[in-house]
UniProtKB/TrEMBL annotation:
Assigned keywords, A-Z: Heme, Iron, Metal-binding, Transport
The protein's name: Hemoglobin
Keyword Metal-binding: yes
Signal peptide span: none
GO terms for MF: heme binding; metal ion binding; oxygen binding
Organism (species): Ferrimonas marina
GO terms for biological process, alphabetical: oxygen transport
Pfam families: Bac_globin
Keyword Disulfide bond: no
Superkingdom of this protein's organism: Bacteria
Residues binding heme: H70
Amino acid sequence: MTSLYERLGGSDGITRIASDLVDIHLNNPRISSRYVDSDVAALKHGAATFFIAGTGGPAVYGGKDMRTTHRGMNIDAEEFMAVLDDALQALQKNEVGQREQEEVLFVLYSMRGEIMRL
């Protein structure tokens, strides 16, 4: 069976998806304020590396874990769902297949307890 990493287009495909996802977040009025003082290039790199490593690719993610990253942000359910909606939009923009979309969203949703209201 082919890994999710490979089915998402490898490092190049995932880097495009992550870049689009950050751009979509920056334009989403529900969550864009979270990124006001962010280094966009660093966000995109971190998202891509996290995604590549998490899908079975060769990258080694050196950033903070989800709990540490989101501690004190008080993210609510609506905001969390806005992020998932943005992820779906980025996946669709990159013509990712339905099965892969479902797998990615499942993984993202499984992190809910590490992200919300910490």
